[in-house]
Structures are given as C-alpha cells and as structure tokens.
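Researcher: Here's a chain I'd like modeled. Treat it as a single chain, no partners, no ligands.
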Amino acid sequence: MSVDLNGIAHIQLSVNDPGRCLPFWGKLCGFFGMQTLISGTDVGYWIGSRTGILVRAAQRPSGAFDQERSGLHHFCFRARSREDVDAVHRFIVDELHATVVHPPEDGGFAPGYYSVLFEDPDGIRVEVNYVPGKGHLGPGGRLGEGGAGPADVYGPEGVGNKGG
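Model: Modeled as a single isolated chain. Structure tokens:
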C-alpha cells in the first residue's frame, strides 16, 4: 500500500533576525497571493496557494544559514508559467532587494525546467520554478513512458547517469 500525498501543507522556518525576515516573508507571501494568519513581533504565518509558510524567531539563534550543513538545503515553490518566474525575479530584486543566487534560467533538472534562486535575510535559500506538463513523470521525462528511468547522479547540471 502507498499514500498519494497532496503536496506540502506548510513549511516552518526558524530565523535569527525576525526584524528583517518577517517583513521579507510577509511581502513575498503577499506577492504569492497568500493571506496573513498570524502577525506578531516574533512570528508570522501566511496561507494560500495550497501551502503555508510559518516564520518564527529561533529559540536558540545560531550562525548564518549554511545550506551545506545537515538539514534544509533549500525549498522550491512551483509557478504556473515561465512569466511567473520572471515576475518573481523582478519582485525579489525591486521590492525585497533579495540576494539572487541565480536569475531566471533553464536547468537540467526536468524537461523545460526554469527557475530563479534567492535568499531571505538570514540566507535561507528559496527557489521558484516552472516545469511544463508532468515534468519527469510525463512524456520526455525520466519516469515517463520511454524515459531513461531513475538517475544515479545529481549535481549542478541536473540529474543523469554515471558515464553519460
């Protein structure tokens, strides 16, 4: 038996600098059409777009976020079009003044993969991507009919198999 999940219900982030992070996340989630459920001096929770984002002050603040340490590397929102990814990029640059890791670009992670990657004020990495159709599960995808099947290599160029 297996369970067919319906996405991610919410993500909770603990931040060192709630004074900078809460306004950042509030503006970003508002841009995504999410509504504010909780708005406090040390916590914010936004819901909509089939998910929720809760951001709160860390109980034990630590050093800067390090995506190479054990734990969260980044998380990714799925957009409905390439134009939406471009609009997010303009918003994070013009309104949030976010650190952009990479501007919108095509990637090798799935057929038609297009994404922008940026950081919140604590350095937590967030991606917004667009993948047309069913991605890896659809025609031309690794797991779709006639696809190459599961990969055994993952890196900056996407997914693949050793030796090509």
